[in-house]
Write a structure and sequence with these properties.
It is a single chain. The protein is mainly alpha-helical. Helices cover 48% and strands 0% of the residues. The radius of gyration is 29 Å and the shape is rod-shaped. It has a domain of 27 residues.
């Protein structure tokens, strides 16, 4: 009977530790990694990209 109680206690402690560890991630394993999208309009690589970065004509002109 004593060994059963020890085993149950060990399982409960293990499950508690696993739940705390999994819950601390909150869905993201690497929260410190951030990525910014590149802005091609800052330094356009070619003339086509530079043309696409312009604002264009207003709708009233069309």
């Amino acid at each position: 009977m004593r060994t059963l109680i020890k085993q149950l206690r060990r399982v409960v402690v293990f499950l508690f530790v696993v739940c705390v560890a999994v819950g601390s991630f909150s869905g993201d394993i690497r929260p410190w990694v951030t990525v910014k999208a590149a802005n091609p309009c800052l330094t356009p690589p070619n003339a086509i990209v530079a043309e696409n970065c312009k604002t264009g004509a207003p709708d009233t002109e069309w």
